[in-house]
Amino acid sequence: MKALVAAGYQPLDRIALTDRPKPAAGPGQVVVRVEAAALNPLDLALITGALKDVYPVQHPLVIGMDAAGTVDEVGPDVTGYAPGDRVLAFTGQTGSVAEYTVATPGPRLAHRPAGLDAERAAALPESGMTAVCLLRAAGLAPGQTVLVIGATGGIGLYAVQLATALGARVIATAGGQDAEYIRELGAAHTVDYRTADVVAAALELVPGGVDLVVDLINNGEGLVGSARAARPGGRLVSPLFGPQTLDRDVTPVYIGSFVPEPGDLDDLAARAADGRLRVEIGARYPFADAARAVADFAGTHIRGKVVITVP
Ligand SMILES: NC(=O)c1ccc[n+]([C@@H]2O[C@H](COP(=O)([O-])OP(=O)(O)OC[C@H]3O[C@@H](n4cnc5c(N)ncnc54)[C@H](OP(=O)(O)O)[C@@H]3O)[C@@H](O)[C@H]2O)c1
Question: Which domain holds residue 11?
Answer without folding.
Answer: 2-124+279-309
